[in-house]
Amino acid sequence: MKTLAAASAKPANIGALAAQFSRMREETAALVQPLEDEDCCVQSMPDASPVKWHLAHTTWFFETFILERFEADFQPFHPAFRVLFNSYYDGVGDQHPRAQRGLITRPSLREVWTYRRNIDQRMQQVFVAPLSDESAAEMATLVELGLHHEQQHQELLLTDIKHLFSLNPLKPPYKLLHTLPNADQLREGLAADALPDLEWQKFDGGVVEVGHDGEGFFFDNETPRHRQFVEPFSMASRLVSKGEYLAFVEEGGYQNPLLWLAAGWEWITQHKLAHPLYWQKSVSQFDSAWQEFTLNGLQPIALDEPVAHISFFEAEAYARWAGARLPTEAEWETAAVAAGSAVHDETDYFGQVWQWTTSSYAPYPGYTALEGAVGEYNGKFMVNQYVLRGSSCVTPSGHTRLSYRNFFPATARWQFSGMRLARS
């Protein structure tokens, strides 16, 4: 699982970045405010991280890549933090084992908050310190990268907390205070809108342009913009719903090996999987009903909501069962442009679930990773993963782009991952 993708962007105004920095750090704190201290220290599985670690690692980024470079007479807040809260930066040094992040009972959560305040104050001092134009431009680029990195961890924090709470016998809800720009998006499991009919939108195919156009912030894996040829195809007008996926479950989709890729069948058989993550069937003496664990606690399945928390294997099997397939990322981007989604808030291409594609996570033609440690987080992960496009209900406001390439292994499903169907 990635936590940072190296990026390139035109440097922004330092004063504006300082204000954005303060706002972003406050938004992260607001996400943690509803939690108890005990909630913040537990790691529910190796792919997830404790909230405390998210708070410390995002702070580590600014200390390591900005303060260490630009602060006069730099001194680390705590020398051991360089290893404890490093994620995957081999160029920076050693890292504490990822699967053991939940064993870091010290520093305490209180000390991590102190760490954040200390680094935040020192960052504000660096923002007003005299720098050459070249250094100011370099710092602005790194700060902007750090802000987008923090937004990635805001999303991860919510997905990790959901997984943690799902394992608690009390099934506690996560009660976000309405202080964030996208707070209303987090009303998961409470959808009331009727599901529109699915229609097939036809595309002629041909040579299309894919990737970021170079304006504004972008991660380096979104570039370079390049041409691809796509055959004629059709794209579903909306996402696959939970009700539609429930039909796949109840008609024996998880028991039919002919629907699954060989590796997928082996995976669901080994782990005895029969439905998406967080679904369960409640059986009483009177009846049985499907429920799902959401950020609002255990709820009846909202049949008209997009299905979420499914792996690539599950999405691929459902598409075959439905007489369709998953789109390539070039098809997805072409259809999203046609749907008017370039602004990322006009259709369900954004803001509900990340959407699996059949495209392997690989470099675009002509891709070159950035130099240094901040260039590590894209190129070295370009193997054995699939691209997801769009964004989800827990993606922070302002963190979506038409060209954004998320990526996960074929078995990952604790993220808000769903699907949109395509046909040839």
Shape: globular
- The fold-level CATH name of the largest domain is Four Helix Bundle (Hemerythrin (Met), subunit A)
Q: Number of helical segments?
A: 10
Main sheet: strands, sense, barrel = 4 strands, mixed
Write down the overall mean pLDDT: 91
Query: What is the annotated CATH architecture of the largest domain?
Result: Up-down Bundle
Amino- and carboxy-terminal Cα gap: 31 Å
Domains, number: 2
Q: CATH top level of the largest domain? A: Mainly Alpha
Unreliable parts: 1-11
Secondary structural class: alpha+beta
Strand content range: 5-15%
Oligomeric state, counting identical vs distinct chains = single chain
Helix content: 25-40%
Question: Radius of gyration, rounded?
Answer: 22 Å
Strand order of the largest sheet: 12-11-10-13
Number of strands: 14
Which series of helices and strands comes N to C? EHHHHHEEEEEHHEEEHHEHEEEE
How would you characterize this protein structure?
With 424 residues, the chain is α+β, with helices and mostly antiparallel strands. It has helices spanning 14-32, 51-70, 81-84, 109-128, 133-166, 242-250, 262-271, 312-321, 329-338, 376-379; strands spanning 7-8, 200-203, 206-210, 218-219, 226-230, 233-236, 279-283, 288-294, 297-300, 354-360, 386-390, 406-408, 417-418, 422-423. A four-stranded mixed β-sheet has the order 12-11-10-13. Strands 2-6-14 form a three-stranded antiparallel β-sheet, covered by helices on one side. A three-stranded antiparallel β-sheet has the order 7-8-9. Helix 1 runs parallel beside helix 5 (133-166) and helix 2 (51-70) runs parallel beside helix 4. It is globular, with a radius of gyration of 22 Å.
